[in-house]
Design goal:
mainly alpha, two-stranded parallel ribbon, 8 helices
Length: 146
């Protein structure tokens, strides 16, 4: 129960502030990935890593703040992660890297706090371009039908 509370409230992320102070991370940017997960991302995602430092929060983190639940409820957990979550996160982080600015970072920090207070909020979706707006609650890992 304590771990669940820490994850839900994002208090488990506080230790990463040390990395921000040391200059290894930014407050906003794509979340660092372990190598085997990074390998699932499309090659164009590497552009993001060249442009921006990893962050404590970011557009992918806000959109997928409830990723654990999505994967638990998925029809096929692996397929959901590999074919729905990873490609969408990559698109979001590429969009962030192409549009990074102090103003966008301030908005994303605010939206992170808002998402913790109001987890059902879809506030971030309104600032994304229409072609990047998706309902992640429909991500189930089901095979695509023709």
């Amino acid at each position: 129960p304590i771990g669940k509370f820490l994850r839900k409230s994002k208090l488990n992320e506080l230790m990463q502030l040390w990395d921000v102070f040391r200059g290894k991370m930014s407050l906003v940017g794509p979340r660092p990935q372990i190598q085997h997960v990074h390998n699932m991302y499309p090659p164009e995602f590497d552009v993001v890593l060249d442009k921006v430092r990893p962050g404590v929060t970011g557009v992918g983190s806000i959109v997928f703040r409830d990723e654990e639940r999505l994967l638990t409820e998925a029809i096929d957990r692996d397929r959901c992660f590999k074919t729905e979550i990873v490609p969408y996160k990559a698109e979001l982080e590429i969009w962030y890297a192409e549009n990074a600015s102090l103003w966008l970072d301030i908005k994303l920090i605010f939206l992170t706090a808002w998402a913790i207070i109001n987890p059902k909020s879809q506030g971030l979706m309104s600032m994304l371009p229409p072609d990047l707006r998706r309902d992640v609650n429909t991500f189930k890992g089901a095979p695509k039908t023709a």
